[in-house]
Design goal:
Blueprint lengths: L1 H28 L4 H8 L28 E8 L20 E9 L6 E5 L5 E4 L16 E5 L3 H18 L5 E5 L1 H10 L3 E5 L3 E3 L4 E3 L2 E5 L1 H9 L9 H21 L6 H14 E3 L6 H9 L9 E5 L2 E4 L2 E4 L3 H9 L4 E2 L2 H10 L11 H4 L22 E2 L6 E3 L5 E2 L8
Parallel strand pairs: 1-6, 3-12, 7-18, 15-16
Antiparallel strand pairs: 1-2, 2-3, 4-5, 6-11, 7-10, 8-9, 12-17, 13-14
Amino acid sequence: MRHGRLKRRSIWRTLAKVTVTLVVVTAVSGMSVAAYAAWDLANTAKPSVTLGNEDMLEGVPDVGAIDGGVNLLLIGSDSREGQGDGFGDPDEETAVLNDVTMLLHISEDHTNASVISFPRDMLVDVPACVDPEDPAGDPLYEQYGVKMNSVLSLGGMPCVVKTVEQLVGVPILFAGTVQFLGVAGLSEAVGGVPVCIAEPIEDEHTDLYLPAGMQELSGMQALQFLRTRHGVGDGSDLGRISNQQVFMSALARTLQSNGTLSDPVKLYGIAKAALANMELSDSLMDPTTMISIASALKDTDLSKIAFIQYPTGYSDGDLLPSESAEIVNTALQNDLPVTFDPEADEAAFASAGDPTAVDAAPEAEAEAPVEEEAPAVDDATTPTPPTAEALPSDVTGQTAAETRCSAGRTLEDQ
């Protein structure tokens, strides 16, 4: 009798497991992954960070594309804490700097997007921020003319968000910080990225050595490629930004071409990797939110996804936003796609070491934006706004439709 009862329970337990499995598979393959994701990620997600502006969000979207526009700040921290021995001694290299600060902007109608890279040495004004060491106490005083990459150490992720909000004039409701190993993990989650390299890259500082040609980058190699400065362009941080844009544009093309942005299961895997490898704002802790943001880009024309280096210039030895920065800000604030000056792009890559590393830009990208005429209306008095923002020659970057090659440097050239 005892064995019979055990067997009966075993049958019911097996049936229950099968039922749960079917429900999980159905959920992940269909329109909602929230229940499974919450269970699966409960022990992997890192503690979240409150930005202080979460009340602006209007509910949580499902796995469909998020409604409206998105502003998401991605912060790359150079902190060595918890990163092992491969990135220097964490006890000696204790600075927590946001050496990478990128703003992803998706327009309200999802027809265009921009990724703005802010140079780490650019001087910015920092507004009053909550003190991460004493959140309930007095806020940190505003500061003026500090390096962008020092803001993370001053006031943490929320302070970087407030600083960029003040700089560009748009609200930022989503943010995430990633360290070295997290970048490697995320690149593995997307399945690798094919990148073109015009000349060999040799960088003993990041231990990166790549031959010329197409290279599939993933894991630690992808991290090294994104970190390298001495091995590309002119060896400067601005040259590194151009290199990062080569990688990101290739990533955008890959995600669209292999159907990842339309596949909830693939997106869930990336969301899982993000939760496990990144420190996220409260607003991003629900994996369905991340999936919804990614889904918003699945049908966006690659020529309307722009990677922009925030324009700067030197004044008395300091790197400051140039006058053209306001044009970039205006495009963000008005949801406008941008067009680059192709001659400026070619000049930028030529100064980085290899003008042949630039593929010919699509003809449509080289043309000045065209303003559409408003339909005939008897009482129409307001002119039709421009359909795109033409960026001046000192604003460099590329669209995701353009395949460019990294301008590598060998040790002999350094």
